[in-house]
Amino acid sequence: MENQNIISAKQFIQTVFIDDIERLINAELYHFAFVIMAQGLETLGSFLDTKPLKARNQSKLRFSHAINKLMPREYANLNNNHRLYDQLRASLAHTFTSGKYVFLTSRNNPEFGKHHLKEINEKLILVAEIFYTDFKKACIRLLDGMDKGIIADKKINEKFYYTF
To answer: Is the Cβ–Cβ distance between 12 and 161 less than 8 Å?
Structure first.
């Protein structure tokens, strides 16, 4: 049983961040997809430093590293003063809701679904399907860096990984 729970970081990223989030998007469970993607950016950022995966007090820095180094440039511009961290990641992590200056939507929304990364009425519009496409590209960039030896693989603690 112990050996069955061992999972590499690459497997974790592929399974949870790419495959499982895609299933959420396809099932139109957009809110849950946003929650995992926001948290996932912080995790992706953890691979860009030399600290342990579970190092304390690193979430804002790690989220920002992922935004700045793995996501398309437009996101870095929007994370000025940690805006995306505060309004998206921190808010979703702590209250399960987005901040008051972010509007989460999908392509199904006729009013906002075509306005990803645009500001409307002082709210930044994030479209789930497009955000996922960009997040997936960030995951693939990280995995490519691991394959090339540019980015170190960090161990996922198998004692805390559950198989379903």
So the answer is: yes
Q: Is 70 exceeded by the pLDDT of residue 106?
A: yes
Q: pLDDT digits over 41-93, tens only?
A: 999 999 998 887 777 888 899 999 999 999 999 999 998 888 899 999 988 98
Report how far apart, in Å, the C-alpha atoms of 54 and of each of 9, 68, 96, 114, 116 are: 13, 21, 21, 37, 32
142 and 47 Cβ atoms separated by less than 8 Å: yes
Query: Can you say how many angstroms the Cα of residue 69 is from the centroid of all Cα atoms in its chain?
Result: 13
CB 101 within 8 A of CB 122: yes
Beta bridge partners of 103: 125
- 10 Å CB burial of residue 83 (0-12, 13-18, 19+) is middle
Per DSSP, the residues of 108-135 read: T-TTTTT-TT-EETTEEEEEHHHHHHHH
Task: Give residue 126's Cα distance to chain centre.
Answer: 13
Mean pLDDT in residue range 90-97: 89
Instruction: Give the CB-side neighbour count of residue 118, counting CA atoms within 13 A.
Output: 10
